[in-house]
């Protein structure tokens, strides 16, 4: 299952950069063996160090519940919305060598994820 963006996916993200703010939608499915705790540790690093450094902010973070309308397998453990000033800011963050030292926490925490750039209507 997909968890981390590939280089090609990051390249596509930047190709669509219009310089406007972007909200990254995160749909998360935690590993059963401590995934939620590892993700909480990753989120702490993100909030304390990297989001302030790159101008990002968490708009919403919450636990999922039973879906009202969804196909089998479309329920998620958590939803997180993170706003960045632009796609370049997100790209610079994930390329930051210090960020690279903690991103393994996110990878280890998840069994599946959706990470999708969105923009206001």
Automatic annotation (TrEMBL):
Spans through the membrane: none
Limits of the DUF1330 domain: 36-112
Stored Pfam families: DUF1330
InterPro entries: Dimeric_a/b-barrel, DUF1330
Coiled coil: none
PANTHER family: DUF1330 DOMAIN-CONTAINING PROTEIN, PTHR40257
Protein's UniProt name: DUF1330 domain-containing protein
């Amino acid at each position: 299952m997909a968890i981390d963006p590939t280089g090609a996916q990051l390249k596509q993200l930047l190709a669509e950069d219009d310089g406007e703010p972007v909200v990254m939608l995160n749909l998360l499915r935690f590993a059963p063996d401590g995934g939620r705790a590892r993700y909480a540790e990753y989120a702490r690093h993100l909030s304390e160090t990297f989001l302030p450094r790159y101008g990002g902010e968490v708009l919403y973070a919450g636990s999922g519940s039973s879906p009202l309308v969804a196909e089998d397998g479309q329920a998620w453990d958590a939803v997180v919305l993170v706003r960045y000033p632009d796609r370049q800011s997100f790209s610079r963050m994930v390329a930051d060598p210090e960020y690279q030292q903690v991103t393994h926490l996110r990878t280890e925490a998840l069994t599946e994820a959706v990470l999708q750039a969105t923009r206001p209507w």
